[in-house]
Design brief:
The complex is a heterodimer of chains A (245) and B (299). In chain A, 72% of the residues lie in helices and 2% in strands. In chain A, strands 1-2 form a two-stranded parallel ribbon. Chain A starts with a helix and ends with a helix. Chain A has 245 residues and is mostly helical. Chain A has one domain. Chain B is elongated and about 70 Å long. With 299 residues, chain B is of the alpha/beta class. Chain B is 30% helix and 29% strand. Chain B has 9 helices and 14 strands. In chain B, a hairpin with a 2-residue loop joins strand 1 and strand 2. Chain B has 2 domains: 209 residues, P-loop containing nucleotide triphosphate hydrolases (Rossmann fold); 61 residues, Alpha-Beta Plaits (2-Layer Sandwich). Classes of the chains: A mainly alpha (245), B alpha/beta (299). The interface between A and B is medium-sized, with 22 and 30 residues.
């Protein structure tokens, strides 16, 4: 069934590429008409990890769309599940294609961000030190974790909209609450919940305002977010085994 | 010989509701089994349990003696009652899914079936009419030349010409050795295509067997009298299943011995006595209305 997933992912990616190209052309046209005084190249090195976080926030939108891909099969199970392939293989195929698709979105968005800086004349050197690589890994991991969480929540329900909206509200809310003046018990609960909150991890990367939502060093955070993604994906696989028409 | 489809004490419960109740049914290889039953009788649920789309509460389903496995779908095709097509995909893309999934996919057969139903490969599923969607699902099922066909209302939404084409496909598949089980609300379709019949009501199998045997198990003796007759005693005859009287015309449904009963009825002096074959519709209505029949030919 990977063919259906590839078709679906390609259609979304194609639309995104067209929109990005249009946006870059628009920016280029604006700067051609109103030449600016120059970039903000102040000679400082900026963290590539920080840029990756900006990319990740954009990709969370696509992760929300891809994250309901199993849910979108629910109305077609009589067709999808009557082919010579086990359910586990079916889920693995869907998840695999979606992860490849998200990788493509991530890379495309990163390239588009660089292109935007060049077009706008604000390109500046990026540092690719150890912290930056952890930041990049964590940013991409957050996208995967977001995808897997939405998948785990929505995979048994045909109307997955509630899951998408709910995840966004809960994740942003939890992230803000981590900096709120709460009592020690409530604060501990918020911190604990933020361990499975991809947005909370993104806020720990340098170049982004740190809220301390996840009290982990960058390297440990980069590892933990993939654990979150893996566990959520496993939950989706298990829940999918029980789906009935 | 092991039956191709073997359903053994299948039960499916949804909370307090029992959708399929201890259903046992066998379909031999090369047979076409028509599954009849009123709305909500459990036909679709039976199919879904057979194919693993719903988990049976108890009981087993075997194909050629082996429980359902993913590889079973290499030689089994299913046409669901409702369209399960991906609205945003074209007919060609649906065929491509089947081509990539099933090694038995036959592109020439697919093209032939697309032409038979007048389908355009470039059209998206969302632009197809109800009948065209049914037709596409039939194409997707038959294009692999399956050995086992499970068809839930396969002619639903099709015009009479295409309905006949579907029945021809079923008969043709069975002639080629395929085993078919299909449900329909149109009794004439079952009468034309099936050689076996199963009737379920309330999730329970109430009648099952070879169609000809079931039909011949009951005859109708029709008698026309000069005056409305008095039928004292006839109702007590153990051969009599049901009596219909409309003025001077009496129709008596008799088990097995139609000739013997016709002679007994002739003693009442009717103008005319005739023994009629029972139609499948009458058999269905008798069984479903009465629901007193036991599994197997009515005794």
């Amino acid at each position: 069934m990977y063919y259906i997933e590839v078709l679906r992912t390609w259609r979304v990616l194609r639309g995104y590429l067209i929109a990005l190209a249009g946006f870059l052309l628009l920016v280029a046209a604006i700067f051609a008409i109103w030449p600016h005084a120059g970039g903000i190249d102040d000679g400082r090195l900026y963290s590539a990890g920080g840029h990756a976080v900006l990319v990740a926030f954009t990709c969370l939108l696509f992760a929300s769309i891809s994250g309901s891909s199993l849910s979108r099969h629910l109305d077609h199970l009589d067709f999808a599940l009557t082919k010579p392939r086990a359910r586990a293989a079916f889920v693995a195929t869907v998840l695999g294609v979606d992860v490849l698709g998200l990788s493509a979105f991530f890379v495309t968005t990163a390239l588009a961000l660089f292109a935007l800086h060049i077009v706008a004349g604000v390109a500046h050197p990026l540092a690719f030190d150890a912290a930056s690589w952890f930041g990049i890994a964590l940013a991409f991991g957050s996208v995967l974790a977001w995808y897997a969480l939405v998948q785990a929540l929505s995979c048994t329900r045909a109307a997955a909209g509630w899951a998408l909206a709910g995840v966004w509200v809960a994740a942003i809310g939890l992230n803000f609450l981590s900096a709120a003046p709460l009592g020690p018990g409530l604060h501990a609960l918020v911190v604990a919940l933020n361990f499975i909150n991809p947005i909370a991890y993104l806020s720990t990367v340098p170049f982004v305002a740190t809220t301390g939502a996840v009290p982990l060093p960058l390297s440990a955070g980069a590892f933990a977010i993939y654990v979150v993604a893996g566990v959520a994906a496993l939950v989706a696989v298990i829940r999918w085994q029980r789906v009935e028409t | 010989m092991t039956p191709t489809i073997e359903i053994d004490h299948l039960t499916k419960r949804y909370d307090a509701t029992t959708a399929v109740d201890d259903l046992t049914l066998q379909v031999p290889q090369g047979s076409v089994c028509g599954l009849l039953g009123p709305n909500g009788s459990g036909k679709t649920t039976t199919f879904k349990c057979m194919l693993g789309l719903a988990q049976a509460s108890s009981g087993t389903v075997r194909f050629d003696g082996v429980p359902l496995a993913p590889q079973t779908f290499e030689r089994l095709a299913y046409v669901p009652e409702k369209s399960m097509l991906y609205e945003w995909m074209t007919c060609a893309e649906h065929l491509e899914v089947v081509r990539r999934s099933c090694t038995r996919y036959d592109s020439a057969r697919a093209a032939q079936l697309m032409a038979l139903f007048g389908l355009d490969q470039r059209k998206k599923a969302k632009t197809l009419s109800k009948g065209q969607r049914t037709a596409l699902m039939l194409v997707l099922a038959f294009c692999t030349r399956p050995e086992i066909l499970v068809l839930d209302e396969p002619a639903s939404g099709l015009d009479p010409v295409y309905q006949r084409s579907v029945l021809d496909l079923i008969i043709d598949a069975a002639a080629g050795g395929a085993t078919v089980i299909f449900s329909s609300h149109q009794i004439t379709q079952v009468e034309r295509a099936a050689d076996r019949l199963a009737i379920i009501k309330g999730g329970r199998l109430i009648l099952e067997g070879e169609l000809d045997t079931l039909k011949s198990s009951e005859r109708i003796v029709e008698a026309i009298f000069e005056q409305p007759p008095v039928l004292n005693g006839i109702a007590n005859d153990p051969r009599v299943r049901r009596i219909e009287q409309s003025g001077r015309v009496v129709r008596v449904h008799v088990r097995h011995d139609g000739e013997g009963f016709a002679r007994a009825l002739a003693a009442l002096g009717p103008k005319h006595v005739e023994i009629l074959d029972q139609s499948l519709e009458e058999l269905f209505l008798n069984v479903v209305a009465g629901s007193a029949g036991t599994v197997g030919a009515p005794s």
